[in-house]
TrEMBL record:
Localization (cell): Cell membrane
GO molecular function annotation: kinase activity; N-acetylglucosamine transmembrane transporter activity; protein-N(PI)-phosphohistidine-sugar phosphotransferase activity; protein-phosphocysteine-sugar phosphotransferase activity
PTS EIIC type-1 domain boundaries: 1-361
A GO term from the CC aspect: plasma membrane
GO BP of this protein: N-acetylglucosamine transport; phosphoenolpyruvate-dependent sugar phosphotransferase system
Protein known as: PTS sugar transporter
Keywords: Cell membrane, Kinase, Membrane, Phosphotransferase system, Sugar transport, Transferase, Transmembrane, Transmembrane helix, Transport
Bilayer topology: Multi-pass membrane protein
Primary location class: membrane
Amino acid sequence: MLGFLQRIGRALMLPIAVLPAAALLLRLGQPDLLDIPFVAAAGNAIFANLAILFAIGVAIGLSKDGNGAAGLAGAVGYFVLTQGTQAVNEDINMAILGGILSGIVGGLMYNRFSETELPDWLGFFSGKRFVPIVTAALMVVLAGVFGFVWPPIQDGINSIGQWIIDAGALGVGVFGFLNRLLIPVGLHHVLNSLVWFVFGEYNGATGDLNRFFAGDPSAGIFMAGFFPIMMFGLPGACLAMIAAAKRVNRKAVTGMLIGIAFTSFLTGITEPVEFAFMFLSPLLYLVHALLTASSMMVAYALDIHHGFGFSAGAIDFFLNLGLSQRPWLLFAVGIVYGATYFVVFYFLIKFFDLKTPGREDDDMVGEATVANYDETAMSYIEALGGKDNIETLDNCITRLRLKVADISHVDEDRLKKIGARGVIKLSDRELQVVVGTNVEFIANKMKKYL
């Protein structure tokens, strides 16, 4: 189940990847910026059709080879599901959840039936052409079922979402805490999809992120508190790790840590920083999750509303100022959290003698990361037990996601010496290797060799 949820979490990243482009177009076209209506309309078109984009993107993300036929099956399934359920009960609105469900079914049907051979007289419909057909047939059945069982489910989801929204500081704090706590197993995307795209409604837009860009003045409470953490807090943690590094290693680790700190500040991509200490000390990571929760609660208490199309970095902060409420308070909050992270992390690293970058024992100092992607890819393959040990390989924003024949053949020390920030074993065959923001280039080279 964990492995399956991991796959869904990874698949969700494909449609979510279009949001920065949508947010950019929507904001640039507004009267307070470039005032170009057709540009704003182009961005709004993406937000207005998020459900179908999720159906297509999730189906492709779940398919075994990323084939477009899976995306077509997801789209067909979505149309059948939504129109079928509304024919039973016109009040049903499955919204983005309907898109996600259709994408899951489309992807699974592709994996199961994409190589099906039919009799000669039906040969035209064999293989990939059969996938949208069998998906439509299954979704007809599901539409009939959901037409009757979905209304109470819909009411339950709306009640949960409204409770979280109405819970105020407690609701945003719990979300912030769980958001960070689920990162090690990659399930934060599933939680985020519910909070950012499902809970709450404003003029047809659902979810905190979607409602924020639709102009809902009450939206942005589940995003604002991340800005102080990603722009100031985690860079402060990086400075603490630099200050705590052994003098002989400080110069070597400064370049790396400053680089990932700037990435966090500018773009809001935090995993490279978090994986630098996540496995070294669960206590340190728990403190990070608690500080994130507190930042969410502080932002709520100060009535700050802000949001992002990608993540809580400086780019989204300045781009979406026109939609925000009291955004500049986030800088004051951020400075406080930057100082807090520095002091707390430095003290804990020193007190518990944690082996953060630059504090490793001499025999633990890794080899230099290979700059050439071809050589790096081959090094990763060898450290993972060779070509025969790798059964499936994919990647998300910062991680390699793999299924191996024998996990005992995976050399974790070797992976870390190559440059991996961490290794997560999900089961006796599935694992993730945290590489960094250049993971896609390395993964593509690895697939080439495999």
